[in-house]
Write a structure and sequence with these properties.
The protein is built from eight helices and three strands. The mean pLDDT is 82.
């Protein structure tokens, strides 16, 4: 039930993101072109990448929720990270384009046409993105997902970015135009940083990165608290989306019966899944010591 609710909430995050970012893209792009604001145009491009990210979120989430089948024994959970990888690559590509445009705007000394609509667009963006960020953060705290996390980071970053855009618009009214191009550069670097970070996180899961050292030690501690288990080693873990499958070997008294040793292993498997939320399935092998 929790898993179903998680996918339903992720889908809502994607849909709300598409609607909100599409609205912002239209008004930012229009006002940015009319006022010749490089920072606002960069912000519009960022909203375009956010639309793509939200679309990828809905598609990736829809695939990830498909249960296991004959060809995918552990489900389709990695789709979240595959589509997060697409999101990160689009962000990196767009950030480089925005960076080049912003640099040229400084070289050519482009000027911003100050206007109240430009100012109002910044305020509307900040308010809307803050609402989307708070909503997405609330969902992420209940149902951790890299797709939700990438949307949450986007909304938060956009609030900060647009505040700087607002600053450049206000300064342009006093004849200080170079700030606009600098803000465009900062926006592009921020998008690049976020894109690279999401890329690395997705890449690590897709490359089957193991549990962290801290999580592995917690698992060992959980296992060794059982007095009849003398030793544990050969701990292997494989990510299958936002959770892991772990395989480990325990050692028990060599005089213990096969039935008793396997009963211990079965109960341990259930306990690991119950007490460690990041683990979906545990496979315990038993060896005599």
């Amino acid at each position: 039930m929790i898993i179903i609710k998680r996918y339903q909430e992720t889908q809502k995050v994607g849909i709300f993101g598409i609607i909100g970012n599409l609205f912002l893209f239209i008004i930012k792009g229009t006002i940015g072109l009319v006022s010749h604001s490089q920072a606002m145009i960069a912000d519009a491009v960022n909203s375009a990448s956010d639309i793509f990210a939200s679309i990828m979120t809905t598609i990736g989430n829809k695939i990830a929720r498909v249960p296991e089948d004959k060809d995918h024994n552990f489900g389709h959970g990695k789709a979240e990270y595959l589509f997060s990888l697409f999101i990160s690559l689009s962000m990196i590509f767009l950030s480089l384009k925005v960076l080049i445009d912003a640099i040229f705007s400084i070289i050519h000394k482009d000027t911003v046409i100050y206007s109240f609509p430009l100012l109002l667009t910044c305020v509307v963006t900040i308010v809307l993105k803050l609402i989307l960020y708070l909503y997405t953060r609330h969902v992420y705290q209940k149902y951790p997902s890299i797709l939700i996390k990438s949307n949450m980071c986007d909304h938060r970053n956009d609030c900060v970015i647009t505040i700087f855009t607002l600053l450049s618009v206000i300064l342009s009214n006093y004849g200080i135009y170079f700030v606009d191009g600098i803000v465009g550069i900062l926006i592009s670097l921020w998008i690049l940083y976020t894109g690279v970070r999401i890329f690395l996180e997705s890449y690590h899961v897709l490359m089957d990165t193991s549990l962290s050292e801290e999580e592995t030690k917690a698992l060992e501690k959980l296992v060794l608290k059982h007095k009849k288990i003398k030793q544990v080693n050969e701990i292997y873990s494989i990510p299958i989306g936002y959770k892991y499958i772990v395989v480990l070997t325990i050692y028990v008294d060599g005089q213990m019966s096969t039935l008793e040793s396997h009963t211990i292993a079965d109960k341990l498997e259930q306990e690991i899944v119950r007490k460690m939320s990041q683990i979906q399935k545990a496979i315990v092998h038993v060896n005599p010591l």
